[in-house]
Design goal:
This protein has about 140 residues and is α+β, with helices and mostly antiparallel strands. Helices cover about 15% and strands about 30% of the residues. The chain has helices at about 30-40, 70-75, 80-85; strands at about 5-10, 65, 90-95, 100, 110, 115-125, 125-130, 130-135. It has a 3-stranded antiparallel sheet with strand order 1-3-6. It has a 3-stranded antiparallel sheet with strand order 2-5-4, with no helix packed on it.
């Protein structure tokens, strides 16, 4: 079986990414709004639809978007990496058995049933006993 490594930022509570986060689950919700507003350029940050991955939109929460390496993830979120981590997001490495590549080769999607392993690779804060603590 093939195995692919892909990388994404996620909330610690429900594994949602920065574009779909909810204000009560992150320390600084404005980071989600700022990222979503800045990432509207079809060349530098193509939407899933623009990247030919629109089938993933209508599947509810069955698909997750990711980048091909930790470096590419940090490049995608350039200017926001530190802010995301300080807001309670974690950088995660997924090992998946299958993925679908976007036309831009900047992002991919994978189905949640394709997950072999999930590993947090970078974290600054942890939510314990109803408060944020540095890791």
């Amino acid at each position: 079986m093939a195995e692919f490594k892909v990388y994404r930022y996620e909330e610690q509570f429900n594994n949602e990414g920065p574009y779909t986060c909810e204000m009560n689950r992150v320390r600084d919700w404005t980071v989600c709004e700022a990222v979503a507003n800045k990432h509207c350029d079809s060349k530098s940050h193509p939407s899933i639809r623009e990247d030919g991955l629109d089938f993933a939109i209508d599947s509810g929460d069955n698909f997750k978007t990711a980048c091909y390496s930790l470096e590419e993830l940090k490049s995608w979120f350039k200017g926001y990496n530190k802010w995301l981590l300080q807001s309670g997001f974690v950088a995660v490495e997924y090992a998946v058995s299958a993925k679908f590549d976007g036309k831009s080769n900047k992002q991919c999607v994978f189905h949640k049933t394709a997950v072999i392993e999930r590993k947090v690779v970078e974290q600054k804060l942890k939510f314990e006993n109803w408060q944020w603590k540095e890791v």
